[in-house]
Amino acid sequence: MKKRIVTLLASAAVLTMLAGCGSSETSEATSGFEVESIETATEAPANEAPAEETASEETAAEAKPEGEVDVVLDEGIDKYEGSWYEETAGRGAMEIGPMGDGKYNIEVNWGSSAAEMAAWRFTALYDTASGDLTYDDGSYQVITFDENGNDTVTEEKSVHGVLHLNDEGKIEWTDSAYASDEPSIFVK
User: Where are the domains of the chain?
Assistant: First the structure.
């Protein structure tokens, strides 16, 4: 993509220079001009790998086993990555960071009061068939705070769940810590 942008910019610059000359020879020379001719004449900078090496790296990336791929959509924007907030009550906050190879580090904090909060920590895997993030070995804790700000873990268990990105761009999150069939909805 970067090479194509550089090529298009170079093409525009050449055409601008040639158009500025004002001679009829210039207009005849540019009438048959094709972008492809510049692409083949453009050399890769010294610090970039030749096209053959780049193609083999792309093929290797495509050959990852199922569930072990990076989820990069819409020209490099990862739709799961970032800060998300629970839509209804606004007490939940979710941070999602890609780790590569289809893995995501996810932290969720949900305040139930000034003196108590729930915290989840887990690594989720991207499921290529469904497009969901799934996890089986998450950590769930309920943390209480005393009047001095000291914290105590009052509940702790292992959890599993699914994060699904719906058609509206919202995350629907279900987790085994709660027995509800209704997902929690998170928005950016």
Answer: 2-62, 82-187
